[in-house]
Amino acid sequence: MYLYGQLSELFPKSQYxxxxxxxxxxxxxxxxxxxxxxxxxxxxxxxxxADSRWRPNKLQSFRNEKITVISPGxxxxxxxxxxxxxxxxxxxxxxxxxxxxxxxxxxxxxxxxGHQTDSRYSQVIAHVCFYPGELPVRVLPPGTIQISIAGAxxxxxxxSFDNIDVTAYPxxxxxxxQPPCACILKSWSPDKCKELLEAAGEERLLxxxxxxxxxxxxxNQEQSLYSAxxxxxxxxxxxxxxxILAQNLPIAELHNISKGSQLKxxxxxxxxxxxxxxKELGYDDETKLFIRNLWDQWWKYSSQWDENIISDKxxxxxxxxxxxxxxxxxxxxxxxxxxxxxxxxxxAELKTDNAEIWLKNITxxxxxxxxxxxxENRLTFHGKxxxxxxxxxxxxxxxxxxxxxxxxxxxxxxxxxxxLLTQLPADxxxxxxxxxxxxxxxxxxxxxxxxxxxxxxxxLQIFYDFCLNMRxxxxxxxxxxxxxxxxxxxx
Length: 491
Prior knowledge:
The protein is α/β, with parallel strands linked by helices. Helices cover about 40% and strands about 10% of the residues. The chain has a domain at about 55-160. The chain has 19 helices and seven strands. α7 packs across α8.
C-alpha cells in the first residue's frame, strides 16, 4: 500500500496546484498528516449529508448515541457552517436539537480550519466527519455531537461516492460578465496557463488514485479495477447496475466459472444482469444460434445465481445509442475480464517509458474488436448486418477509461506513470469543460489550451474546487484571490 508521500511522488506537479491553494488557507486543501489520502472530498460528504438517498439510516455519535436526522439543514455555500438550521433527534430519549452542521474529512479539520475561534460556528450542533475520532469538548460549541459516517457507509449495500453527481446539488450559474480569474490569467503566458491546468489535472488524478487505493485496501487490486471499469462501461445512465453487477458477480467467480471462455463469461454477465434475450423472439438465424449458445451456458448456473439477478427495472435503455447499450458493453466486459491473465497483471507488465507505445498497448487490451465475431458487424440483436466493422469499445471510451481509471490505478499500485501524464489523449469534452475554459480564458480562447487529457482533467478539478461552489457568482471566488498571490513559474 502506497502512503501519502509515496503516492504524491508519482504526481509531482500536483504540488504546484496545492501551493496555489496555500495563500488563503483554503478549505479545499486537505491535511496530509494522514498516512493514506482520503477517498472522498468534503463536497461528496456534503452531498451524502444533504440527500436522504445517500445518508445512512443508522447514524451514531462518537459516544454511541443514536442519531435521527429530521432535517439536514439548509445547504450554505457562503462563509460559515456547511448546513444551517438542521434538526436532529439524539439518543433513546429522542432529544431534539436544532442548529448548524459542519462537514469535514477528519475531526482535526475543525481546528486546522480555525473554526474554534470563529463566531460563525458558534451554533454548530453536529460535527460530521468521514474518519472517526473525538475532539476535546473545549474546542467545540457546548453540546456539539460528533459523528463519523465511514463505518455506516461501508455497511450500506452498493454505496459508492463515485455514484454521486455533485453537480446536481445547489449551485448558482456563474455570471456572464468576465470572471476575475480570467482578468488575471490574461497576463499569464500560454505556457504558464497550461502548467496550471496540468497541475490541477495531476491533483484530480491523484485523488482518483487515492480512492482506488482505498478500494484496493478494502478488497484487492483485481476486483477494484474490475469494478471501476464496469462502472465506466455503464456510462451515465447505467453506472449503478453495472457496479451492482460487479459486486454480484465478483471477478474471482467470473474467472473461476468461465475458465477463459469469453462466451461463458458473456452468458454469466447477461444472465445475472437479467438482460439475456428470449430465445423465442423473432431474430435472424445467426442471432438465434448465438442466443441459443448463450442460453446453453447460462442455464447451468441460473439456479445457483438466481438471488443475484438484477431487476430489469434497474436498467435504463431509453434514448441510448446502440453502441452504448448494456448488452453490447457486457460483451466488451466479457472479452476484457475472461482472459486467463488478469488485466491488472497485464498492466503491471507494460513499460511506461514510451507513452506512444504504451497507449497503443492499452488500446489493444481494451479494444476487443474480434472477441465476438457476432458483434463485428452488428450494433444490436435486431439490427441489420453492416458492411463496416464496429469495435465494442470506441476510441473515446478507451481514452476516458485510460485517463480516469487505468492511470490512477497504476499510480495506486506503485507503477511509474510520470512519462504518460502529459501524453494522455483528450476525451470528448463536455459542458463543464467548455464552461470552465470560458470562465478562465475568455470567449476567444484557443481550444488547444486544453487539448490533452491531463489539461481537461485540470479544468474539471478547478470547476469542482471553485466554480461549483459560487452561490453568488464570481466576485468573492477564492481562485482569483489565490491567483493574485501565486508566483510559481512553469516547470
